[in-house]
Design brief:
The structure holds two protein chains of two kinds. Helices cover 30% and strands 19% of the residues of chain A. Chain A has twelve helices and 13 strands. Chain B contains 20 helices and 23 strands. Chain B has a seven-stranded mixed β-sheet with strand order 11-10-12-13-15-14-21, with helices on both faces. Chain B has a six-stranded mixed β-sheet with strand order 3-4-2-5-6-7. In chain B, strand 14, helix 12 and strand 15 form a beta-alpha-beta unit. In chain B, helix 5 runs antiparallel to helix 6 and helix 9 runs parallel beside helix 10.
Chain lengths: 351, 615
Amino acid sequence: MTYIAKPKFHHPGLKKNELGYTHRDYEGKISTLCAGCGHDSITASIIEACYELSIEPHRVAKISGIGCSSKTPDYFLGNSHGFNSVHGRMPSVLTGANLANRDLIYLGVSGDGDSASIGFGQFAHSIRRGVNMTYIVENNGVYGLTKGQFSATADRGSKSKKGVTNTDNAIDLVAIALQLGATFVARSFSGDKSQLVPLIAAAIGHKGASFIDVISPCIAFNNHAGSTKSFDYVREHNDAVNRLDVLVGRDPIAVDYAPGTVQLVEQHDGSKIALRKIDADYDPHDRLGAQTFLAKHAAKGQIVTGLLYVDPDAEDLHEHLNTVETPLNTLEADTLCPGSAVLDKINASLR
Amino acid sequence: MSDKKPISSVNDFVVRFANVNGSGSASANEMFARAILRHGVPVSPRNIFPSNIQGLPTWYEVRVTEAGHLGARGGVDMMVAMNPQTWDKDVAGIEPGGYLFYDSTKPMPSTKFRDDITVIGVPLTAITNSTYTDPRQRQLFKNIIYLGSLSALLDMDPKLIEQLIGEQYKGKEKLLSSNVHALHLGRDWALQNLKCPIGLRVKKSDKVGDRIFIEGNSAAALGAVYGGATVCAWYPITPSSSVAEAFTAHCKKYRHDPETGKAKYAIVQGEDELASIGIVIGASWNGARAFTATSGPGISLMTEFIGLSYFAEIPAVIMNIQRAGPSTGMPTRTQQCDIIACAYASHGDTKHVLLFPEDPAEAFEFAAAAFDLAERLQTTIFLMLDLDIGMNHRLCRPLKWDDARQYDRGKIMTAEMLEEGRDFGRYLDVDGDGIPYRTYPGTHPTKGSYFTRGTSRDRYARYSEEGTVYADNMQRLVRKFETAQDLVPRPLQANAERPTKYGVIYFGSTSPAMDEAIGLLEARGHQLDRLRIRAFPFHSSVASFLAEHDFVYVVEQNRDSQLRQLIVNENGIDPVRLVPIVHYDGSPITARFIAKAIGDHQDHLKVTPLRKAVS
């Protein structure tokens, strides 16, 4: 439980990143989720990605809604400000925070209940506005905290732990994010850290709305036979289109890739994504192609994972609004208030 | 033909224009009101409009009042009846001895008129059609033509109207001259064919002074600009939309960096009110000054977030331009009906700060103050306007700003303070005023971060479901609310000439009608002390006022006497001593209504007991 203090000592030989931080500097409190929960693996991946990117922990704002997934920001980046807000409303809170200070990194953590049901609207609108954020949905197809009700991402025909068959159609958040114009769209699996860590790192480097749907089995209520979000099912049906490496400050030529197998994508922050193709025909710059590919594979019961779409030249909400480079929260009366002379003129125009 | 002597009055009458929504009458009617102001005579105009864009009836009422009574008066001395749909009702609404102005192009049966009024026909359509061929021009210029005729009938100076037209169409010579031409078409026809002027006349005066003429919503938006708001998130809803629109317009003028052209503000039209308040709370959490503007249904939707703002202690400014509820209610009619909904918004034990401006000048001041209060108190501040103040032009004192004024950003723990080793507990009451320190996200690499949540936590923001920890926090929030009492605008008291045991409490847009009613009541021999409440929580002077009077009338514009309920609840006083005076039909409250309601009650109270009368 969270009131158990996490010991601070660590191995003296623990590796440090460029900023001199160790892994431990990116950790948070001890998780209160069930042992084996997929969400804890995602937490570990976020820690790993932030460590790898040498991000200053306090320059990240982590914002969530309500639910098991939304509790996780307490378990990573303990030196970052976190905001466990209102059910389904993480996107609006994050949008506001982002408008106030464009210099921080915004990490939105949500779940399938939080984003596909109560917060479906806010999910959609934050994506279509192009808020510069990394929006992670920890997707287990079930309401965990209230003990096992279906969520809106549960596949039609899948069975609950109590044996009830879901008759409602599933919402595929990745398909929706693509349709709404997200400029970085990925899907991964909490059990595949080697795929997930670079995806999170690349999403953080992306300037614009990045969306990652992470299938994250619920060990307590949705890991049985008949579930399509169980560890076994996802492993069997995982269809990865690519694997990637994120290269920060390293010469990509120095990394040894077999010729013709790698596609390099340069990001806004100067980092590069090296995409190792698995499916030779898959083009992550083709939004329409990605939509069709997803639909075809979903019909076959396959879960497509990897970097599904990226637009490296994306614009974000601040560009749309043409806001000043200086964070709005640092502006004071001297720059914001037009003053009494202007007010006198306004008064004169109103007579 | 008149059974009643025509009303004769200089600078004190009511003209009502009955129009069809979307016919372009609004600008001509507004020009009529402004023209009278240019004569140095105060006016108080009101739009009475439907929830519709085109086709439904709309009215514009101008109270011409040299005495400066800016509340609605009630009754109509002259009806400009331009809408056949509402003809019967419009004609019936004219005061005996009043005047009916109409388009006489088509003959009307005599049964359509009244014997006790003066009927003035001008063949507006005929004049228009003989001059203009374009249908849109015909429609628009017809309005200017009736303005011209009225100027002759009411003895107005045409030069002053021409001046207004000149200002409105500055740089658009063609429009300018064609409008002036239309004005004279109507004026000349009236001068040649009618007895001008009639009994109602406008005479030049000097009673306007340096006052300005502005809508409350625009003033509140300007207050947000001056008060340093940088983030605005909103969802369109009548009658609040013009706040965000005015904020946008003001920002475009005054908030762009002269060198880069970039915006020192961000405005987002949210997908709903939930998103709007969410954006406000996210921005405020991150240290920007943020606000939203909405009306009753929006408040209902925002309540979950308002509870979060209260409990997690995040600043927010909500401008509530009240309209008649419940539910969709009467979206284009005015009321003060969200007092309870806002004071106690959200589930659990909550209380919120409310500000009650009386006019646009106070809307400006209180809007700017709301941002200081929100950051000082780290909670939601409601600016409670209503449709009557928000969407009507109101004459008020000029807006003022002290250039030495700095924003009160509240208790912020900086990186330097953290470096000095200051103890940071996000919910720690270090000063005894119930207000803790907060840090902005990104302040310091290793100190001062915390996890914001709507769940219970201890003084150091650590999750806790311990009963004592929870109660400790809830008690501190009470202390904070007590601190607010002395920070919000104080009530204003005005005593009667002679000592009296009767008082009246009122607030917001009731103000001008109340001031006028006092005169009417004095004429009936009733003396009343007045207290205008300007904010909740109530200052201690409210309790003193209640203690000093036997009976206190609480005048408000809602059915359930909501402010009275709040006073009874918060001050624990005997409800019998607080007499509700309520007006809630959606029209603005009038002095006549208040004076009658209070006067009748006073007469009833003062009935001499029988035993005393016969002894």
